[in-house]
Amino acid sequence: MKRLLKMVCALTALSLLAAPVAQAAPSPMLSTAEKLTLKGKKGESLFRPGYVLGEYTGASGGVASSTRTPGIYSKDKLKADFTVTRPGWAAPVTVTCSGGQSRLGLGWITFKRDTLDYVCEFGGSAPQGAAFALAMTKGGFLQELAQPQRAAELRYGAVTLRAQTKVLGGLPIGGGGATSYVFIKGEQEIGGLQLNAFPPAFYLPPQGSADRDAAAILSLILFYFRDPGRQDH
Asked: How far separated are the first and last CA of the chain, in Å rounded?
């Protein structure tokens, strides 16, 4: 009897987790974006492995899991840095991210927002004024049941992209963190990142698109962000 009860509870929990996935409308960008996976390659050192994402290559390091402190992220633990380049660039772009406050207001967020907690600085051949910020947000019950809610913005030269959590498929298994994002320019979804795919799936605008470089960098930032999940849940 106890075994049967446990099975019923497990099936009920699984159905609740799957419900947001079943109800969510598929993202239109899935039929237009190029689906890529991140592949490993020899890096700069043992602690800075290399990667290949389509035509983009680079190395990453300095990524560490955050420690849990009630109500906040631990600023000295949430860090990531990586380089990215592609054919045609004179020099790599460098990206350094960590916990902290941001100059970006993320004023487009219309629902309740927590404090800004994750920001990135750019160097190398990145456009002047490039900036990124990510905020924890609060959505509806089904949204939060599927995954912790996040919203972000990347300003990269003439391109401004927003990212927000949205179910792209699969079960919401993210180890407590966000499982998938869509990238939005204006009102149009142009790319995304699915972390609960095996392997993770990167969706970039087609080659030749003016938004492809920014979308690639945005996807790498979110991939290397070791999301600790909501601290207040």
From this structure: 32
pLDDT digits (tens, 9 = 90+) for 163-207: 988 888 766 555 566 788 999 999 899 999 998 888 999 999 999
Task: Give residues with Cβ within 8 angstroms of 27, minimum separation 6.
Answer: 166, 168, 182, 189, 192
- Look at the pTM and tell me if it is higher than 0.90: no
Q: Give all strands (DSSP E) within 26-158, no chain letters.
A: 34-36, 39-45, 48-53, 56-61, 68-69, 72-73, 79-84, 93-99, 113-124, 131-137, 149-156
Q: Closest by alpha carbon to 35, among 159, 151, 188, 197?
A: 197
Q: What is the dihedral of CA 180, 145, 188, 154, to 10 degrees?
A: -60
